[in-house]
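Run log, item B.
One chain of 651 residues. Sequence copied directly from the ordering sheet:
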Amino acid sequence: MDRVVFAIYRAVSAILCALPIRVVFRMGWALGSLGYWVAPKYRRLVLHNLKIAFGREKTPGELRGIARRHFAMLGANLFSNIKLPKLSREELERIVAVEGIETMRAGTINNGGFVMVISHIGSWEMLGQLTPIIFGCKVGTIFQALGNRYIDAEVRRDRARLGLELFERKEGFVKACQFMREGGAVGVLVDQHAGDAGLWCPFFSRLASTSTLAATLALRTDAWLVPAAIYTDGVARWRCVILGQMKPHGQDASTITLRINEMLEDQIRHAPEDWFWVHNRWKTPKPKFLLETYKRGVLVPHGFGPGRTMQSFRILIRASNWLGDAIMSVPAVRAIKRGRQDAHVTILTPAKLAAVWRSVAEVDEVIEIEPGEGVFAVAKKIRRDFDAAILFPNSLRVALEAWLAGIPRRVGYPGHHRRWLLDQIFEQRKKKKKKKPELAPPPRHQVHHYLDLAQFVGAEIGPEDARLSEIMPLPQSSIRKPVIGICTGAEYGPAKRWLPERFAETMRIVHERTGCVWQMFGVEKDRPVAEAVLQAAGTPCADRVGKTTLEQLMLELRACDLLLTNDTGAMHLAAFLGVRTISIFGSTEPTLTGPLGEGHIILRHHVECSPCFLRECPIDFRCMKAVQVGEVVNAVIAALPDRTESISELS
């Protein structure tokens, strides 16, 4: 196939080289104009890039006009680049005007080499022919080999005939530096996406991976940086513009690279249709589109610039439908937000949980899913300019919503037949089987399920990231009665509920010992259990079951000194708010879904059938019956220091 493509390339080259340059230019213009209509993939890319660069200052119609002219000019210049190496020096001088040479000091060039800072503007390949004519020095270029080895060899031969010294990127830069020290000029293309090795800095106010090669060469050789561009200036006419040279005294490579990007912006603004917009300059790296772990890092100057603000990298996070799971994913959301300076984090969540996410400082926006909204309605809500979607729930519907919305990068765990809807799939590595049996590793908390996904996209995760809020200090005043919240229900099912009569006895004893104020929380479905507990306890208690919105519940939980609860969403919410919890576990596993943070108390007796994770106990409820009133009372009183001494063991 390489040979077939090369044969076609040679045939086209032969035809074009036999034609006058004006004819070649017009042929390329016509084919480029056609390309706008027949290459929808590249048309969308060009319009996307133009929107990033000029979307805040030009209308969609103006951007489409630039895109059409760009396709035409690109075709004309690509065709002309095949013909131009065959032209004589006299022919070149007739079709190219040079501006800015008077700003160059002759001594600057004669006393040493320089770096020619080149971009994909107009007929950039022509600079290889013009530099010896303009500056009277030998010229080299750093290049990357083409994928087709036959075309690559042909291009090398053409460049060698023009007197260009070629330095392949993969061979390093020692030869290029020596070439410059001997008075040569080395051309470096500075406007390509630099991948993992690049410095992330603003380009048209949006972070882009940028090569530091030009700056590094200049610093190593103490050379000047000379920006130059060749604009299309009519039919088979070009204009070479040389800007004032830069000397990198007292600056580092990052700062110089930032200045080069700013200079390049000015060049492009002068003739936006002439730049190479079909290149994905603002490519989203994969898989780590968060930037904390890239070796060259991120450079955003303080204040950035007069009247300029960074364009955001917009991340949609589809949150869990359950309160407890949503709380356990908060550390991952914080890590994701921290992963990019330009991150704008939007949470897509059921409306009933929106209040939680609005209280998280790292969340910039919340989009609510109303009860009964279908897949298409949700997809319409999120059909915005999101760069990536991170899907916490492992469901087909969630992936379908993001896919229908057209979000270009969709990240999540596999499963539920949704692989085809994701383009970045995180799968846990399976360990190789060993001959000798080993003890199974301890289970990991559910919080790591979300943190692992954040790490997969580039967040740096440390031991402290699994925490929520610090426990709020308890008031020490003996005047104020302690306020204790209590949750006797569990939405998942009765297997997670401690016995109502034991809750009631605990409430009565603790009230007698401390004079505490009880507040009972829960959803409307918890009403039968709550009424049974209240009736049996016979102690004063504010009944808030089914009577609070989530916002009100958060406010009232904050006012509690601690919360006595089953394994519930309210338990996780209290931990999130910094309220100490005493949690009773039976059918579930606290190392997996216990409250996050230090200072919480978990009461659980491990029996032979736990954890079973069932909604209803099929036998005798032994795991919950094993938890006695006395140990719960002692735990509650121990969590209220300086109130009273612990009571003796109760049956």
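Observations after the first pass:
- The radius of gyration is 34 Å.
- The first helix runs from residue 2 to 18.
Flagged for discussion on Thursday.
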